[in-house]
Design goal:
Rossmann fold; 5-stranded mixed β-barrel; about 350 residues; OB fold (Dihydrolipoamide Acetyltransferase, E2P); alpha/beta
Amino acid sequence: MSWLPGVDDDDEYEEWDESAARVRPNPKANRPRTKRRPEHEDAVVGRVLTVDRGRYGLLVHEGEPEEREVTATRARELRTQSIVTGDRVDVVGDTSGDEGSLSRIVRIRERTTLLRRSADDTDEVERIVVANADQLMIVVAAANPEPRPRLVDRYLVAAYDAGIAPLLVVTKTDLADPAPFLRNFAGLDLPVVTSAKGEAPLDALAPLLDGRTTVAVGHSGVGKSTLVNALVPSAGRATGRVNEVTGRGRHTSSSTVSYRVPSGGWIIDTPGIRSFGLGHVDRDSILRGFPDLAAIAEDCPRGCTHLADAPDCALDEAAERGELDEVGRLRLDSLRRLLATLAG
């Protein structure tokens, strides 16, 4: 009896062989794997405005008549890369911005700056706060909550490390005189804007923001989101009050969002924080923020910490020779305070 179906033993047939079997081709299964990726020459450039659980709010065709906001996800090849507010990205797919549409981020463009922080000073794993900002607006309150000079020092360290220009805004000056607090930074080339409670210094702030991408940081309850709402009336950022018992503000902003300022420029509002780790920063990054002192420090012995107890520090020798004027001595004090902050 034949083992081929439909063929009797008496029929003549050729001996069956596996090589004679016809295999239906599967183009996907048989396609050789490659690491080459599409060039995406049709991609459009987008600015990341928001990041929310794997979805990215983008502004595409910025400054053009067809400018619009779209929602995007990331391409598979970017799954190990962080995409943050302020990033410039290349986008493909449905960029119509219609309800329910979804585009895809396929490339992250080169970043000019990165504002980073770590969980604490012992953690060297950096967390990117925003990308491509060129100004850091540090918001503090003269009172309620009390200003924290050492937290401001940490913001300044992060700004100098990132190559971002710092700007200090002091709110609620009707509750306390900000002068004693500001003396901590007298030696720094630090622009300062002040405002009373319930007032927004728009006339003073607007020119400083125009043409720049500014990231706003500050302790909870200092009035940062109130400032953002005054600068961008359509922002609608939640605001809160300070606990009368603890003196602490309550977190009201839970996400980092970028807004276009009607008078010019961009402002990125960040959630209020109570700590700012510097585990990723090195000493040379701080010194670069003080170019006049860095030139003197070139004569320091190798490994010099530039702190007050550092042996044979050229900065001390310059001060003893009278080469530093009053402002120079104040700047030296500020530099050493920042370095001491970094050293823990």
